[in-house]
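Exercise: predict the fold of this chain.
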Amino acid sequence: MSNEQLPKQIAKHLLSIEAVALRPNDPFTWTSGIKSPIYCDNRLTMAYPEIRDVVADGFVTIIKEQYPEAEVIAGTSTAGIPHAAWVAQKMNLPMAYIRDKAKGHGKQNQIEGRIAEGQKVIVIEDLISTGGSSLKAALAVREAGAEPLAVLAIFSYQFKQAIDAFAEAGIPLQTLSNYTALIETAVELGTVQPEEVASLQQWREDPQSFGK
């Protein structure tokens, strides 16, 4: 499969196992109160060996082609951990994971496993929304004296807020699939109708205004 085909292929897989659901006329309500036409739970990919293998291979391809100097694969806690483990195994590289914050007991680690000072690290995440938690994980790597080469994720909503935050931090962000590819794939499959596309695109541009 070519790199150009991968975003839609991943989107098709996510739709097929209902890891992503689109309801433009009956939106979900997020914890924040935002009305959303999309719900994404990429943890469901763990239950499907063929799909999780496609995901891992996609990550491996990006790393080998663009970040061949990578020395450690680090997953975000908790959803990025299994994907980081599969990637690290395929590449025969050390693996670590990064907590949202340091433990309040024991060694009070934020990074579990081992990331040594100066090592070049790829951070694996499952989903990018605003990008806050993923960027926090990458910055924890930087604070530990290592170099976060990039954050790689399965899927992104493509919010401008996330794109700007990563650009400001100087940390590359790449995803296997994204909201644009998902909508295009959903239309091709008949999951959403062409006349619903405008409202779906409006949500990405201004989530706060959706449904109002």
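Check your answer against the key: The mean pLDDT is 92.
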